[in-house]
Design goal:
The chain has 153 residues and is mainly beta. It contains two helices and seven strands, in the order ααβββββββ. The protein has a four-stranded antiparallel sheet with strand order 1-2-7-6, with no helix packed on it. A three-stranded antiparallel sheet has the order 3-4-5, with no helix packed on it. A hairpin with a 2-residue loop joins β3 and β4 (69-74). The termini are far apart.
Length: 153
Amino acid sequence: MRTNLDFTPFYRSSIGFDRMFDLLENASLNADNWPPYNIVKLGEDAYRIVIAVAGFAEDELTITHEANMLVVNGAKSEDEEVQYLHQGLAVRPFARRFELADHVIVEGAKLENGLLVINLKKEVPEEMKPRRIAIQAEPTKPASKQIEGDKAA
């Protein structure tokens, strides 16, 4: 089921949320569910994407990390010498896109047992992390001495 939402009214009254609306629009466009995949959270800042790519070799897969976007492409090379009596494996070309949050980097990828495993990590730069600000108190001034009337010199 696909619904096309119009976010135009929100653009009039919101500032700085353009990227969020683009994400919502792109999520509905990426409704193709092949090849199947899992997204796993391994820890506080570690993630893994596992894509089922049975029948594809390493040289038939490409992984591209662009700004906030991970693109996995697969294209099987044509072998004209092979004559299939039955072809049940879906080895059609594909492009799978994953929208990444800010500061998420790709640590590495490996192909094992028909699964493409991509490890991701969120690395927030030091200048972007919250930091505690020390409060400096001004030195207190001694109380002013007031001369009493009877003790005047």
